[in-house]
Amino acid sequence: MRRLTTVLAGACAAALFAVMTVALGSPAVAAALVEVTGFGDNPGNMRMHVYVPDSRPASPAIVVAMHGCGGSGPGFHQSSEFASLADRYGFIVIYPTATQSAGFGNCFDTWSDAAKQRGGGSDPVSLVSMINYVERTYRGDPNRVYATGSSSGGMMTQHMLAVYPDLFKAGASFMGVPFNCFAGASDYPPGSSRCTGGSMDRTPQQWGDAVRQAYPGYSGPRPRMQLWHGTSDTLVPYSLLRESIEQWTNVFGLSQTPTGTDTPQAGWSRSRYADPSGTVQVEAYSIQGAGHTLPQSGMARYAVEFFGLTTSQTDTTPPTTPGTPVASGVTATGATLTWTASTDQGGSGVAGYEILRAPGATGGTFAQVGTSATTSFTDTGLSASTAYRYQVRARDAAGNVSAVSGTVQITTQGGTTGACHATPTVQSQWGNGYVIQPLTITNTGTSTITGWTVTFTLPAGHTLTGSWNATVTTSGQTVTVRSVGHNGTLAPGVATTSFGFQASRPNGDTALPSAYTCA
To answer: Gene3D superfamilies, from UniProt (predicted)?
Structure first.
């Protein structure tokens, strides 16, 4: 009886997850949908289909559109509106097909340890290979890559934006769950998991830490997130929309209170969470009375609009060159840049600016360190008493990029150092590893600290496997940890901050790091 109950539960879940998909190989699939084989490293054993509109700019945007459990790439192509929007706005759509079973077939892997590690393997690596293929073959724009999906595909959307934040510009998750909602293989399939069981409740900090730990040390811009859920969804409970909002607002350092709410259509409630510059970083839609049936008609258009892709694809004229940046507010760890705005000459409107930085007064390579929707940008996490050079370029909504501006050079101030103390806390440990979290840094002096460095020694045979909220380097068994932009400044009078790390060790070894020093 127990086996029969399990089989029936799996069958019901499969049917519900597949409501927005059709069978692979349906004769209604458009001829323009092309299957690609040999696209690169494919540890997830996935299939790839791509839709390339006939009319597109020289460097088109890329949208990865992912089906629900039990579905397929061609099925999602047919049942969703992303291909027709690609025809209108000139972006390329990748339709992956998952082959992970998760109990009932064709689910994207968001539960295995391999999938949760950057470059660890499984489906995420296969998806990255597909994106790289489109960039190579069709000159896809690496600065305009987006993810979207329904149900399992919505889960993978949030998963990919956590593990590969540097690869994606934004995502739109329909009926998804927060990253790391599934603790492991035992917590899957969704129909019988703790994640989707209706009682999942973590704090915003816990959700945000899960994302930050997916790519320890990453300090670049995070992709914007759009979330959709039906209020009557019981397969992936509506309560998980709130958990996703908590996760992504915490990642952006935003309040749980929306900066604006409205009703775009009857029965749609939209909440927006904007940063101080006014850029909406998180957007959430509650669809009154809807079950596990998203996206519905018209919703894909709102997702593509959130991505910034709803402009004519005929514009091939780049914006004018922005003015040479002017630096102000230079400190030991950061600086603010402002510049004269570009103007667009092709009818799309300037969508934003890309900020490039090179180390030193000469030499070095300029690399993108951030983006801005306005004509200013504050760079953080810099080293004291160090020279940097900056340039800016504009990008319009059609993907055209201007020439780079003139160069401005800055030299950061020298850091003021007070006395500090490092206190480690063992959060958890097991046979062959452990987590130190939090490792608290305390300013015990009478002057402000604008940058700190902690060193400690790993026991023989121990290896650092991850860290967060700091920049970490190792030399032999000596580990050097340096502050990042948001936690380098500590006021006098026992102000504190913290970071954490994970390490492996020989099985049965109970030794822990020692000789913590702070400067």
So the answer is: 2.60.40.290, alpha/beta hydrolase (3.40.50.1820), Immunoglobulins (2.60.40.10)
pLDDT per residue as tens digits for the range 490-516: 888 778 899 999 899 888 888 888 888
Residues known to be catalytic: 151
Which letter, b or e, does each residue of 58-80 get, where b requires 16 or more Cβ atoms within 10 Å of its Cβ?
ebbbbbbbbbbbbbbbbbbbbbb
Note whether 400 and 440 are same-domain residues.
Answer: no
Cα(116)–Cα(216) distance, integer angstroms: 12
Distances (CA, A) of 126 to 91, 92, 173: 21, 18, 19
280-337 pLDDT tens trace = 999 999 999 999 999 999 999 999 999 999 865 566 788 999 999 999 888 777 889 9
What is the C-alpha separation between 509 and 515, in angstroms, rounded?
A: 18
Q: Cα(202)–Cα(242) distance, rounded to whole angstroms?
A: 10
Same domain (yes/no): 448, 468: yes
**Same domain membership, residue 391 and residue 280:** no
Can you give the length of the chain in residues?
Answer: 519
Say how far apart CA 369 and CA 366 lie, in whole Å: 9
Distance CA 261, CA 285 (A): 10
Q: What is the CATH number of the domain that holds 116?
A: 3.40.50.1820
